[in-house]
Write a structure and sequence with these properties.
332 residues; 21% strand; oxidoreductase; alpha+beta; two-stranded antiparallel ribbon
Amino acid sequence: MSLLGLAFTITKSITPRHHTRCLSTNTPNKVIENVRGIMRKVPQPVVVVTTSKPEDRNHRRGITVASFTSVCLKPEPLVSFCVQTPSRASDLLHSSGSMVLNMLAHEQVQQSIAFSSPNADQFKDIPFFDDPITGLPVLMGTLGAMHCEVYKVVQLGDHEMWITKVLKVEEGVGGEHGVREEAKPLLYYDRCYRSVGDQVFMKAFADNNDLASTKWMHRAHLRMAWNYIRELGPDAAEPVIKETIRTHFSKNPVKSRDYHETITSFYIALVSAAVRSFKGDDASDFFALVEHFPQLLDSKTIETYYSPDQLYTDHAKHTFVKPDLKPLPTYL
């Protein structure tokens, strides 16, 4: 899954020979790191691309992209975005050929998170309507939407660049109260090469906003831990993760009673083991991680390490105790 990176079109030009030799001193890996570094400083609009099957409009899908840009206005308006391949979103876009590009407003963090997830029921609890002419899903509360059709698709590495022709622009309300003056875009930057939506996800988790009160379940805790582990390393991340969860729970008196030191420590160890084991191009994709290691989402996994008598005690709730069935994993 999901998720997505930035695509860059490099235009080759005739370069003096001595200049070419100068550029060749930069290794490909060095250039990649330099591009990552500078792109962290560039604010990006958060755009959700939605589409549906022509023969079954109830088969909808959306994907959060960070690579949206305007290509040209003449002779016809073209915009582009990128999609990771292979993916269900890519398959459906090819099947449909038409899509809606929804420009998220600043308070639509929930929508960004929902459509950066591979879950089947992405539109649950998300306000939207089906366009009466095209039947395509349009998100509500956005800055606006562009109704588009495919112009050209270019394969670039592990992504496709979709160049699309804009057929219609639909103004959104862009705010909680529908007042045009409050329309502000949802932006993120300084992303530390996280997967799409992780910067806004981490902010939303820390804020514990009301919109997402039902979203902060086991998967969200794993994703928060994964972000910190990748950024800080397992050892330095552990106290930060625990403090973040305690702070998060403290904002909800009912949840505050649920914090369990041993269970929290176990899943930090489990995510750390998964991060060590998961290499390759998908290593920066949380949704690919949990798809590769389904035991992360399985509530029964901990029972293969701990007996109930060891885990469900007042001592284990307040102090970390080691598993009694098998040692904590280092790799998965």
